[in-house]
Every structure is written in C-alpha cells, then in structure tokens.
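Title: Prediction job returns without error message
Component: structure pipeline
Severity: low
Priority: P3
Assignee: unassigned

Description:
Job completed but the reporter wants confirmation the result is attached to the right record. Sequence as submitted:
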Amino acid sequence: MQALIAHEHAHIANGDAVINGRLLVLIRGFRSIYDASVAVIGAPLRHIKAANVAFAITFWLSIVFGVFFVLGLVGVGIARLMQAAIARQREYLADASAVQFTRATSGLLGALQKAGEVQQSRKHRPTHAAARRCKWPDRPQLQLALDRRVASLQHSLHV
C-alpha cells in the first residue's frame, strides 16, 4: 500500500496534472478550430433559401476553411497521440519515483500485478442504463503498458 501511495504522490510531485491540463487545452484548441470551420462551412446551407446560391457560397467557404478543417482534425489526432505517449512515460516516471521514495520494488510490483489481475477479470459491463447503450472499447494497450511496467520492475528487482 505504501508503494501505491508513493506512486500517486509522485504524480503530484512531478506535476503530471499540470502537464495533462496543458495538453487538454491544446486538444480543445484544435477541436475549436475544427468546430468553427464546420460551422462556417455549413452555415450557408442552413440559412440561405436559394439552393444554388447556398451551394456556391458553401463551395468557396469549403475551399477557404478546408485548411482550418484539416488543421483541426489532424491537430486533435496528433495532440491525443502526444497525450497518450506523455501519460505512458509519466507512469514510468511515477513508478521509478515510488521505488525511490519507498525503496520497496516488490511492493509496487505486487500492486501492479494485482491491478493487472483485476483488469483482466473485470467485465466492461456498466450497470447504468444509459452507459449500457454506449459501446465500451476493448483496451488491450492498457494491459500491454501494465505488462511492460511489471516487466521493468521485475528486471530491476533481479539486477
């Protein structure tokens, strides 16, 4: 338990919440660019009654704001990939800091192994009716990341 608390304390000490907040602002900025371009491109179709005029205006707006559309769409994807990569590395840093704080590699190793067992046995079936309508994606990359962290700690324990 001490190693798990040290791991969470390492997240706080290393400023992970601040970094994640900045990444979320970056993602929201790109998403705003995307949303604004979609709104501007589609506005003539919603508000102009003459179809041929609306299509002509929409065509030219699509050319002009298409760049912003692509920038927003690609930017959100790249920012999400950056967020995932940074979060994974911050987990490794928190593991290392927890071992440094407690000097108990086996305690953190046991907690991670138990988390892996719970994650494998857990069924992703929400009990709330609204949540059951959503599709819950399988997350094998989370298990893979956990396995790598366990392997890293086991390697350091035997060295």
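Comment from assignee: result matches the submitted record. The longest helix spans residues 51-102.
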